[in-house]
Design goal:
Blueprint lengths: L1 E8 L14 E5 L5 E5 L9 E6 L1 H6 L9 E6 L8
Antiparallel strand pairs: 1-2, 1-4, 2-3, 4-5
């Protein structure tokens, strides 16, 4: 798992069937790397979230048949990034 910040939504109207109608979010690591994740929890821009990656990411969506290797597992209510 990794902690990332939601930068915003990613809108894709044409998708392969394996992505269904999942919400997609652009995430940024504390070091600035951008990634795209499936969002089954409804995170908003600015939220800090924890993510599941690899095969665990598919299971975190609730549908192990989805094509994803990064899924938001939860929204962090309290965390101090600088310790």
């Amino acid at each position: 798992m990794e902690i990332m910040q939601v930068m915003g939504s990613l809108v894709c109207t044409q998708r392969v069937e394996g992505f269904a109608h999942q919400n997609l979010r652009v995430l940024r690591t504390p070091k600035g790397k951008l990634s795209v994740a499936v969002d089954p929890v409804g995170a908003a821009a600015g939220n800090w979230v924890f993510t599941a990656s690899g095969s665990a990411a598919r299971h975190a969506t609730g549908d192990a048949n989805l094509f994803t290797d990064l899924t938001i597992g939860g929204i962090i209510d309290f965390w101090e990034p600088d310790g």
